[in-house]
Amino acid sequence: xxxxxxxxxMCHDILSPADIKAISKSRGFSDKEATSRSLFENVxxxxxxxxxxxKTLTDAERAALHLLRLEDRVVDVTFxxxxxxxxxxxxxxxxxxxxxxxxxxDAVQRxxxxxxxxxxxxxxxNSPTKTKMELWRYRFPPEFGPFLPxxxxxxxxxxQAGSAQADSLRADLLRLVQDKPGGAVPRRPGAVHLxxxxxxxxxxxxxxxxxxxxxxxxxxxxxxxxxxxxxxxGGGYPAAAMYTGYLLPDNEYRAPSPLPAVLYAFSQLAPDxxxxxxxxxxxxxxxxxxxxxxxxxxxxxxGWENGLLVRYRADGKDxxxxxxxxxxxxxxxxxxxxxxxxxxxxxxxxxGTVFVDLEKVPYEALDLLNRIADLKAEDGRLRVMPSVARxxxxxxxxxxxxxxxxxxxxxxxxxxxxxxxxxxxxxxIIHENLLVARVTDLSLRVKLQQxxxxxxxxxxxxxxxxxxxxxxxxxxxxxxxxxxxKKAGHVVKAVRAT
Length: 498
Known about the structure:
Blueprint: H1 3-14, H2 17-27, H3 31-35, H4 37-44, H5 50-55, H6 59-71, H7 81-84, H8 97-113, E1 119-122, H9 132-135, E2 136-139, E3 156-157, H10 168-178, E4 192-195, E5 198-201, E6 204-205, H11 208-229, H12 259-267, E7 273-276, H13 281-287, H14 296-305, E8 309-314, E9 317-322, H15 324-327, E10 349-350, E11 353-356, H16 363-372, E12 373-378, E13 381-386, H17 388-398, H18 402-410, H19 412-424, E14 434-438, H20 442-451, E15 464-465, E16 470-474, H21 478-487
Antiparallel strand pairs: 1-2, 3-7, 4-5, 5-6, 7-9, 8-9, 10-11, 11-13, 12-13, 14-16, 15-16
């Protein structure tokens, strides 16, 4: 059920005259729009009165709408138990579904539907046991998203950089070239490894996205460890209620995680804005459908310890904001993926041999190098060598990239490979699902060409003569080719390449 269908059904079939009157008053629609359901439908998704309606909501209601905006999905009435379920949220077990959720349905109708900030419709079903209460579907229109008040409010403003934890991943990178074969075993295995397939992080090829996901997984694991220890938590880790009402497909499993919502909240802060940990409390209460969740202070502390948050202390209180790597797929390079100095700042070239300065290279640049080059630990440094196999897959996308231009200018090996690839570009085409046949009988070749000629004697688009005695044709036409051969009295001999 898409938004247009839901909107039409709501405006024409579901809303009562009293509902339309209440919405029109909340949003400031004209009398003409309030008395015509078609005009009401046309104006509902406009910006008229949305900002004012949002101001009448509670902080918890705004947080719930932010979650709906983040997910952009249809939910059922059980989603709103986190708002209007009281202390019994997540623990309803007595009475019919309608009896359990009647008061919540009424609260949604009164506080959200009648204020004109939510769309409601009824799902279709063939089940005779489904009650009408179970079929109500709600959606927050994406058009209203820009008018939502901020999810969190800055506790302090400062252009100070704040304090950040040392980058453990960069330490792992440096360890790759510092640990010599046969030497001492590292005190702990690192997350980053270098092998024949290049750099990897965990089980994935090294990339900026993999770095982001690894850091977030480490943060999530730290939150879980804290919850198991009962370290600064307001109860257990009640993840079961997190996705209540989301209508996830039966075959979709989603590991409960507060991080998408928490990072979304931090992303709304201005560059100089910082929030105290307790600024996340309302969001977490709504997300977890109750106060029994990891304490916001613990969540921010573990985020700082894992390098996704930076911390600023003012007047004896800690404030946080997101580190650059947590939102964008780059690391801490403040000047973008090429760093403040460009490739020359992190790719020193010595007599035509290029190395990576692992203390300076931005992760986005290392991601790119991992896709176009062979990387090798050599004399305590990471050497960069051209890889034709890797370049073939990525050259078309990265041909004009500054890093590739730098490598071409400072490395004879890269220059030779790139010039050879440029010279051959477009001349070699690899086809899939083609069969090649050797036909030594000239009369048979003529019969095949005649059988598959195009209209008006045009060359065949199905059968293509190759050099020597070979022809090529689509695998799908194999049966047609065999018919011609058998009709001419020839036998097909198949040879399978390995």
